[in-house]
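hiii so um. not sure if this is the right channel but i have a protein structure encoded as tokens and i wanna go backwards to a sequence. like what aa goes where. can anyone help
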């Protein structure tokens, strides 16, 4: 039996246990009630509801539970722009809802969820020790879900609108939001040296190209241009199917060093299936590898033996980027190499890994004539990314 309603000094506002209840008449004359956490919140709610009824702007709150609506929503979600939504995004959203949001919000009614509840949800995920990007991915479908519910008139306001999550993300001991971490070149060589001989070429290939693991697994022989010494990224292996790259910027052509080109040429000569449509790195049955299985079976043991147990497949991508920057590539070139959507994003992701010490004397000696004369007037000729040093292939 619920606690009795105790009148307060405000007409239509009552206290029940530790919470407050606002009672009002809807447009049809029926008495309705809403719950609030504080007296001030209940009074404000009473005033707003009464005003909405008088102006004819009152919306009846739908008594729809979060879990049921979430599963219905993800089955029909078409995106919030004219570009629609990618199938891979739907897979990510569904996984995030089932893993985090549905267990957290459960049977709570959509209309009862407030901004503070969204903040509590973000904090809960962050406290699990997940990366900031994983937290954002978990919150994204919740934001989209509530935006849809608001448009459909199921809730009076969108509780996720305006909620900023940056300040709630997990931080490092230094107080900074967790950032990309890369291997040094000696650490990369050590990692490759400790990798089983069968898998050294693949680990070197991922570090050299900076591909996402799903992109590397999906490379076919037709994607390797031996004449131009390039590998073309056209697809990825994701959720047990081949899909387009992660974004429209993901399709790209990556330069290969002579050593890497020769290594791939030798691999094709010795491959049991060297047709254009065949995978460069297949399982024994010719199918794509499972990224998680490769990580636990190949990369993690090597990383532990090399003294870098924190390293994963994405670490090799970060390592590629920092090597490119360290050897003179600019943000535009690295953006193209990695398939990011903008040079600004690339620079923001890796700026903390770039050297911040003052230029040395040799650099200043080279700069002096240019600064004095205004340059030689020659336009920049190199629009393509520079090839990295062959540090990733010294594993013999």
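sure thing!! here u go:
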């Amino acid at each position: 039996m619920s606690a009795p309603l105790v009148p307060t000094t405000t007409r239509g506002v009552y206290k029940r246990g530790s919470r407050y209840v606002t009672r009002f008449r809807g447009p049809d004359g029926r008495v309705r009630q809403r719950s609030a956490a504080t007296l001030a919140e209940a009074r404000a709610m009473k005033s707003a509801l009464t005003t909405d009824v008088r102006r004819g702007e009152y919306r009846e709150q739908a008594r729809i539970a979060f879990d049921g609506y979430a599963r219905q929503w993800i089955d029909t979600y078409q995106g919030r722009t004219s570009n629609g939504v990618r199938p891979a995004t739907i897979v990510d959203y569904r996984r995030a809802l089932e893993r985090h949001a549905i267990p957290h919000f459960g049977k709570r009614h959509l209309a009862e969820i407030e901004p503070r509840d969204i903040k509590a949800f973000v904090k809960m995920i962050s406290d699990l020790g997940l990366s900031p990007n994983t937290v954002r991915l978990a919150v994204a479908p919740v934001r989209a879900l509530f935006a849809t519910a608001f448009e459909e008139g199921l809730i009076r306001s969108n509780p996720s609108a305006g909620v900023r999550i940056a300040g709630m993300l997990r931080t490092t001991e230094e107080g900074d939001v967790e950032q990309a971490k890369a291997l040094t070149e000696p650490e990369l060589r050590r990692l490759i040296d400790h990798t089983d001989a069968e898998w050294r070429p693949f680990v070197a290939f991922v570090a050299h190209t900076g591909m996402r693991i799903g992109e590397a697994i999906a490379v076919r022989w037709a994607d390797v241009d031996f004449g131009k010494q390039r590998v073309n990224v056209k697809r990825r292996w994701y959720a047990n199917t081949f899909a387009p790259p992660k974004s429209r910027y993901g399709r790209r052509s990556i330069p290969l060093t002579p050593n890497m080109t020769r290594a791939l040429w030798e691999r094709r000569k010795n491959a049991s299936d060297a047709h254009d449509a065949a995978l460069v790195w297949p399982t024994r049955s010719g199918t794509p590898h499972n990224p998680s299985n490769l990580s636990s079976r190949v990369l993690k043991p090597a990383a532990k033996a090399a003294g870098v147990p924190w390293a994963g497949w994405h670490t090799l991508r970060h390592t590629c980027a920092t090597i490119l920057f360290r050897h003179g590539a600019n943000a535009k070139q690295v953006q193209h190499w990695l398939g990011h959507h903008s040079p600004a994003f690339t620079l923001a992701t890796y700026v903390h890994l770039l050297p911040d010490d003052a230029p040395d004397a040799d650099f200043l000696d080279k700069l002096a004539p240019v600064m004095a004369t205004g340059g030689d007037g020659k336009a920049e000729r190199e629009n393509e990314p520079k090839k990295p040093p062959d540090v990733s292939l010294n594993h013999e």
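oh and DSSP finds 14 helices and nine strands in the chain.
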